[in-house]
């Protein structure tokens, strides 16, 4: 009798785990070979989907696990990719070990840009996946297959950094109908090696909305807050690679939309400093500090301690700040 009770509790526990992990959703994973970035964007009518669907590691790859999601696919899959297996090989390994594979939906992209996807035959309709050279979109419990088509088209047609392309894809998927149960949670993750130039931290963008009536709109608001730092970091990356023209291209686009944004102004100051335009850099810095108000001390500390502004550090005028 006692043994039967324990067995019943275990069965109920398994059922509850399955319910919690039933992540009807749409997502897109992608790879930017120029900057070495992997990214994932996701929306679902499931609480904190942005915390459990996306998995990525710089230099290794990205994985989205959803539907009746097997959350171990993320860490297991990344470990296998890091061992040198390709995306198709990893997918084959994960599915072979999973008796519930027909309830799973998963997408994988590896460091060579190879893509593998699986939509189990028992995923709830509409369910499916599509892909192209650098991205893969997948979803289940969707209004129709047009959700994924809209995502792919938006990703391809959107200019900007990877995070912006992923965000546009998510918005297009929702505009096409999205998850037929509605909205609740969303997330966006982009990784690349040494994202902040201070060690192994690789999360360039890591934002999510766990519970909101309009999670994609809220995710867009958060992304707009994150993007100036992304553009500053990308400016520095291109300058350190000896590609000032790419740095200027990014800055012109960003400053065109937000000409008074302080972080973008810092990026411009760094650009001038690294391209032999110290006088212009100092003029821009003077203007920024004059309007910084209570943030002035923070900006001064930042430019005096950050290696991005090293070309200015020995300048006498700069040292008087």
UniProtKB/TrEMBL annotation:
<dbReference type="Pfam" id="PF06267">
    <property type="entry name" value="DUF1028"/>
</dbReference>
<dbReference type="InterPro" id="IPR010430">
    <property type="entry name" value="DUF1028"/>
</dbReference>
<dbReference type="InterPro" id="IPR029055">
    <property type="entry name" value="Ntn_hydrolases_N"/>
</dbReference>
<protein>
    <submittedName>
        <fullName>Hypothetical conserved protein</fullName>
    </submittedName>
</protein>
<dbReference type="Pfam" id="PF14559">
    <property type="entry name" value="TPR_19"/>
</dbReference>
């Amino acid at each position: 009798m006692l043994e039967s009770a324990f067995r019943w509790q275990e069965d109920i526990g398994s059922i509850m785990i399955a319910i919690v992990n039933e992540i009807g959703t749409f997502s897109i994973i992608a790879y930017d070979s120029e900057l070495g970035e992997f990214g994932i964007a996701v929306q679902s009518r499931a609480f904190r989907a942005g915390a459990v669907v996306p998995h990525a590691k710089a230099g290794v790859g990205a994985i989205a696990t959803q539907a009746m999601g097997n959350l171990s696919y993320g860490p297991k899959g990344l470990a296998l990719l890091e061992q040198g297996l390709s995306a198709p090989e990893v997918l084959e390994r994960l599915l072979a070990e999973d008796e519930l594979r027909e309830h799973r939906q998963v997408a994988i992209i590896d460091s060579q840009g190879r893509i593998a996807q699986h939509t189990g035959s028992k995923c709830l309709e509409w369910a499916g996946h599509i892909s192209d050279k650098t991205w893969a979109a997948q979803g289940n419990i969707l209004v129709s297959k047009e959700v994924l088509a809209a995502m792919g088209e938006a990703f391809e047609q959107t200019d900007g950094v990877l995070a912006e392309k992923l965000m546009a894809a998510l918005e297009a998927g929702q505009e096409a109908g999205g998850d037929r149960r509605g909205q609740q949670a969303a997330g966006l993750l982009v990784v690349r090696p040494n994202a902040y130039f201070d060690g192994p931290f690789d999360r360039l963008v890591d934002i999510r909305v766990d519970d909101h009536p309009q999670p994609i709109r809220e995710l867009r608001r958060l992304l707009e807050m994150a993007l100036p730092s992304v553009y500053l970091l990308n400016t520095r990356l291109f300058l350190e690679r000896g590609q000032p023209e790419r740095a200027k291209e990014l800055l012109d686009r960003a400053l065109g939309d937000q000409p008074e944004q302080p972080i973008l102004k810092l990026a411009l100051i760094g650009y001038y400093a690294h391209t032999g335009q110290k006088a212009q850099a100092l003029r821009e810095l003077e203007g920024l500090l004059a309007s910084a108000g209570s943030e002035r001390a923070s900006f001064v500390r930042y430019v005096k301690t950050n290696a991005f502004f090293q070309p200015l550090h020995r300048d006498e005028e700069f040292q008087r700040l």
